[in-house]
Automatic annotation (TrEMBL):
Binding-site list for Mg(2+): N7, E34, D147, N149, D247, H248
Source organism of this protein record: Altericroceibacterium endophyticum
Gene: xth
Highest classification ranks of the organism: Bacteria, Pseudomonadati, Pseudomonadota, Alphaproteobacteria, Sphingomonadales
Protein name: Exodeoxyribonuclease III
Family affiliation: Belongs to the DNA repair enzymes AP/ExoA family.
All residue ranges annotated as the Endonuclease/exonuclease/phosphatase domain in the record: 4-248
Length: 257
């Protein structure tokens, strides 16, 4: 069973590319980030036409997450990350589908740092850690996936000097990500590609795609109950090179059913 994550960078702007990817790769579950759509404007009917049922947590103009499931309707568990009742940004959606708990997130970028946006990122990651602790205690097969906006290690970027001042690879960002893993979660792509050099994002600027100047910020974290069933993980890199593509490529994991 394939479970995938795709920061689509505008679901309506990229809809033809998104439909292509879904039909060509057919993940059982597909999690989208940065849908950049209000709830009422989300194109759910387009996915129904190709056999996917969806739930979504939208926001006008930016952020927003969605979960699409092939052949069944995902059962929503949680909308929004607990821990801050004043946080109105649409960045987290949790559901049950295909006998898996799926937690789809779009973690704050944190730039510029230092500053309030970086503080918000770190506070959000602490709230995420608390939720992931609860999920582990449930001992259900669980995947936490999405755009984490964290470059975990130096091997996960084309250039450490180019990114050294960015919020994505500050020591505090990396420490917070490592704390998540140390609870008992498995980073699927890193586990199967321990030497690194795997990118999931290429900026639109400075010919980054053409020069393969990318980095890895889209992650799939598996609970022990899912990690035991891990068979493959990868990046659908070619989709980044298509016309009017997102600046991210889809990432995916395959587990036994």
């Amino acid at each position: 069973m394939r479970i995938a994550s795709f920061n689509i960078n505008g679901v309506k702007a990229r809809l033809p590319r998104l439909i292509e990817w879904l039909e060509e790769t057919r993940p059982a579950i597909a999690c989208l980030q940065e849908i950049k759509s209000q709830d009422e404007g989300f194109p759910g009917e387009a996915f129904e036409k190709i056999g996917y049922q969806a739930i979504w947590h939208g926001q006008k103009g930016f952020n927003g997450v969605a979960i699409l499931v092939d052949g069944e309707t995902p059962v929503e568990v949680m909308r929004g990350l607990p821990g801050d009742p004043e946080d109105e940004q649409s960045r987290y959606l949790e559901a049950e589908a295909k006998n898996i708990r799926v937690c789809n997130l779009y973690l704050p970028n944190g730039n510029p740092q230092p500053g309030p946006k970086f503080d918000y990122k770190l506070a959000w990651m602490e709230r995420l850690r608390q939720r992931m602790t609860e999920l582990l205690a449930d001992e259900k097969p669980t995947i936490v996936l999405g755009d984490f906006n964290v470059i975990p290690e130096d091997k996960d970027t084309w250039s450490v000097p180019a990114m050294q001042d960015d919020a994505l690879m500050q020591p505090k960002s990396r420490d917070a990500y490592r704390t998540l893993l140390n609870q008992g979660w498995t980073d699927a792509i890193d586990t199967l590609n321990p030497r690194g050099g795997v990118w999931t994002f290429w900026d639109y600027q400075a010919g980054a795609w053409q020069r393969d100047h990318g980095f890895r910020i889209d992650h799939l974290l598996l609970s022990p109950e899912c990690a035991d069933r891990l068979t493959a993980a990868g990046v659908d890199k070619a989709y980044r090179g298509r016309e009017k593509a997102s600046d991210h490529a889809p990432v995916w994991v395959e587990i036994t059913e």
